[in-house]
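call fold(seq) -> tokens
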Amino acid sequence: MQDIYIACDYGTDHVFLNNGDGTFREVTEKATGWDTKKGMNVDIADYDNDGWLDIYVTNITDEYMKECNMLWHNNGDGTFSDVSKETGTCDTGWGWAAKFADLDNDGWQDLFVVNGLRSAGPESYVPLLLPLLTTQGIDLTDANNWPDIGNRTWSGYQKKKLFHNLKNGSFADISAQAGVDNEMDGRGIAVGDFDNDGRLDLVQANADQPLLLYHNVTEKSANWIELKLIGSKSNRDAIGARIRVQAAGLTQIREIDGGNGYAGQSMRRAHFGLGKATKIDRLEVRWPSGKKETFAVPINHVTTVKEGEGASAQ
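ret:
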């Protein structure tokens, strides 16, 4: 049963656990504690392959606000610890969408984050705004009380961030090397293997600017599998299914969701990088119906997996 994490721009984030009977219970205080940051985006993945899903939340970290993002590491006991500073994923400017994806197929999920509010003229809007934040009696919910922005820039021209998973609990910024460090006003991200070559591509949606499609041309990309799940007793899109793949001593998990994050929805196929592994030792699907099945699938193929019927490679 899938749970819920809600990022709130104005107000604390919330964590709800699924009771399995159509209701949820709030566990925010125990799970993460209460925060006052400007949450924009949530993505969920087991970034350290320890069998527990972790949570990444973008906030605002720039001259306007210095909040730091949150990477909630799942402690496996109902609590989470923020390790964004320790992992190198704290500062992404005015953060918007963020997505985990194994972009080099090494079996460890990387992280792409888009940022930037308004890129315009050379003069900054922030010096006009900061005095209002420290003046009592001004109703900032009324836009008429804000100074005219004109052609000023507000947290603009920020370089996008691509963090490579170092497999040791931390990440390295490789945005420039990967060619994705554009300065557009990013908003949404979608991840998909658009040409079915086993290398995940990225779409970046921007505010009042053309979108970008980054074709993944990583050389010497490792082995991989992609799974398209179709439910029968479960819902047809298999939303809520959990997939566990074991290969070459590494165990990875993915969950099928109905779309999450800010202003973008990725493909529903589950993608697994396998590194140098040449076969799958075990592939298990736990369907939303509760049924568990194991499948044998070929590597370096897109495979359709049907509940109760088996698997067929394209």
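The chain has four helices and 22 strands.
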